[in-house]
Design a protein that fits this description.
Elements: E1 11-15, E2 21-23, E3 40-44, H1 47-61, H2 70-78, H3 81-84, E4 94-99, E5 104-106, H4 109-116, E6 123-127, H5 130-138, H6 143-146, H7 171-184, E7 202-206, E8 209-214, H8 225-241, H9 246-258, H10 262-272, H11 276-286
Antiparallel strand pairs: 1-2, 1-3, 4-5, 4-6, 7-8
Helix pairs in contact: 8-9, 10-11
Length: 288
């Protein structure tokens, strides 16, 4: 098992699935209750601990079938004293984030809370043992399954009622109303320690997609006047509405100036990461 270079400050152990390994950053994993129980990602702050966890858990998971049911996994892991007592001597809690980014078992509360930002209904749990956190991730945060395995009395985040909006409701009062609704909700775990507003004003984008969600009004860096005149007002407003970063806007303008057909334009931007369909649509905007 190759471990990432020691210059990294964190490591992610991915167990189960098609590509179990130790990564320098957490890979994107499927989430939601319909997704399979594996793989599971576990954050570590040292390569030694990451390798220890991987060497302990991955061989045990090989006993499971190709697509194991959650009950089978819980049985296999729960029968192992090594798994149940893994890192039991460690001071501190484990933070299982089922709905968040990155999704997985975090090793500090601060890192776990940071992963919840941008999610109106995050699902996470603070647990005393790594085995508890593993069980929580495997059963996708569904208490009725977790309680059958471990005597834990916590509750998963409740779904909040929608806030009624009238025609006279201002944007500021809407935000304030959402904040009050969340803070008053007794089971909304994400509200404690997370300073985020449920309204997303803009998604910051590059050519690959959304890179940041902004919960406040901010000024968009419009392209230079010469570039704006080339692409036209419709394209400028589209780029502004989707908050494309300056570098992405520059690539779009340059590609438009050097392309002769919609196919050439869309394919060139596709190489840079833009979805092909969006490239064709952008060509249409540029030629209105």
């Amino acid at each position: 098992m190759d471990v990432p270079a020691a210059t990294h400050s964190e490591y992610w152990v991915v167990i189960g699935g098609d590509e179990p390994s130790i990564y320098a950053t957490c890979p994107t994993l499927r989430c939601g209750r319909s997704s399979p129980p594996l793989p599971v990602a576990i954050q570590c702050l040292s390569s030694t601990k990451a390798k220890m966890i991987y060497d302990c858990l991955q061989p045990i998971l090989k006993q499971a079938l190709q697509s194991p049911h959650m009950s089978e996994l819980l049985t296999i892991l729960g029968q192992s004293d090594v798994v149940c007592n893994l890192l039991s001597d460690q001071s501190g809690e484990f933070y299982a984030v089922m709905v968040g980014q990155p999704m997985g078992i975090h090793c500090t509360r601060a890192l776990a809370l940071r992963s919840l930002c941008g999610f109106l209904f995050p699902c996470w749990r603070e647990l005393p043992m790594l085995w508890d956190a593993l069980a929580f991730m495997i059963i996708k945060g569904m208490d009725e399954h977790l309680l059958a395995v471990h005597d834990y009395n916590g509750e998963v985040s409740a779904v909040l009622a929608m806030l009624p909006v009238t025609s006279s409701t201002s944007e500021d009062s809407l935000v304030k109303g959402f904040d009050e609704l969340i803070l008053d909700a007794p089971h909304y775990q994400g509200a404690q320690g997370v300073t985020c507003c449920p309204i997303i004003y803009t998604h910051m984008c590059n050519l690959h997609g959304v890179i940041e969600s902004q919960f406040y009004l901010s000024d968009w860096a419009s392209p230079p006047q010469a570039s704006a005149e080339v692409i036209g007002i419709h394209a400028v407003k589209y780029l502004e509405a989707h908050s494309y970063v300056e570098s992405a806007t520059a690539i779009i303008v340059e590609t438009y100036c050097t392309s002769h057909t919609d196919h050439e334009f869309a394919l060139e931007l596709a190489w840079a990461g833009l979805p092909l369909a969006e490239g064709f649509f952008m060509w249409y905007l540029l030629n209105l």
